[in-house]
Predict the structure.
Amino acid sequence: MTLKHTVDYASALVFELRNSSAGLVVRANFKNGTMGEEFHPSGMIFGDWNGGQDVPFDTFSDYFSSLRGPNTSAISWCSTCGNPYNNYCILANITGTL
């Protein structure tokens, strides 16, 4: 399964941590909208990874942790997202931290 288009309303992408004979791996499972009855494994392509449904956890973690900014506080995240109306962001701004 390859994701190439805008997905239907209420679609879901779930990252599943699994133990395999190769060690801990991450698998992406996708369900297309409210009509989709099952999740289907979906291959991932990112960085230097371009193969298989099961990505070694270290490969997945190393790539995605390199994408986060230097400041990962709630206030910084809410500012980056530009959503001051989210309850979490309102609480973060009131308390000064979360």
